[in-house]
Design goal:
Length: 471
Amino acid sequence: MDTSPKTVLARTAEIAIDWLETLEQRPAGATADVAELRARLGGLLPRDGVDPVTVVEELARAAEPGLVAIPSGRYFGFVIGGGLPAAVAADWLTSVWDQCPALYACGPAATVAEEVAGAWLGQLLGLPPHASFAFVSGCQMAHLTCLAAARHHVLHAVGWDVEERGLNGAPPIRVLVGERRHASVDRGLRWLGVGQASLTVVPADGSARMDVTRLRAALADGDGPAIVCAQAGEINTGAFDDLDAIADVTAEAGAWLHVDGAFGLWAAAAPRFRHLVHGVQRADSWAFDAHKWLNVPYDSGMAYCAHPDSHHAAMSVTADYLIQGGPGQPREPMDWTPAFSRRARGFAVYAALRSLGRQGVADMVERACDHARSFAEGLAAVPGCQVLNDVVINQVLFRFEDDETTDSVLRRVVGGGEVWLSGTTFDGHRAIRLSVSNWQTTDRDIARALDAFREAASHAGAGRGGVLPGE
């Protein structure tokens, strides 16, 4: 049994390279169902150990039919990016180095890489230079981090120490959210003790943006601590709230403004699309993902806060055994994130930013938006297809004559394996949404997607039944 790291990792690299180099020929979606995957991967835990190379080879063979070609340019689902070569390589090193950036003492290089990459990201996206930040697993935990800071800040302003006293007896916090918000905002608030029944939902206008006039009225219809959650990039349409106008309203009301910028905040990195986030730097906190448009491997999210003291108060922790601080005043990541033990995500983000540079990020964002627009223009010529949104960024929302036809077309396209994308419900009707977020997507990939929809539309009504992606 050869258990040497060199042998195991060399064979693993061969398997990984083969996967990446054959993505063009692979189906975009999985080809095995859950029963087959359980049969291939399951069974009793073996009594004796198995040679590591054999384990890796058999795992790859068993898992392959259940793998989705997310790294390919033909994957258009859920606003998921791929993996830039430098970011993937750095992520492999992250696993080999096995650093824990909870504390500087556990991983000095990992914590400094986060410090540098966090500053670079703030510069790239035009966030205030004094803003604090945290590397987290994704936008869900970024919301939790930012909204915990918001909760501390607005309660502290009225004399309540939530970290010491909890929420029992605290002044009620009004949280105002947009009608088209992402579900992760509600989920993060729920974990912080703010249930859905406590939310004030501000209606959206016809373009899925928060109605600023209604927001102003809602804020005026009450007093006390308040948090407003705005959105840069609605998940179906890509629409952007008027962040500058919302910042005016929240400033007048003395409310905290949090921005869900999961993928849309990356518009700030691209000169052609920067106007979409005009005023975003006036917010109090921002949450977004690096595993979307920056194309680093999962999982990688970011939380930024314009009030470092509130951020630190909400997240910091001490214990007798923790080694914190020291010569040079190192940044202690544990004071800014909700996690003790976690992956050293800063290495991959650092590598992605260095490999692209400011111009490379801008080009990647603008290229994806151009592809989305080309796809929408091509759809306009497909019989029975209706594009439902103004394509302002990388999201295309469309449907066919009725719900049944829409679902049938989507099922046929996904079943054909050329591309993968998901269904949704919008304004009470079934629809399909395409997200272009992968650095590898080309004009040919868009052409293949259009061909798949033309062919499926010509057979509309056939093959109905079964489970749709996105459900």
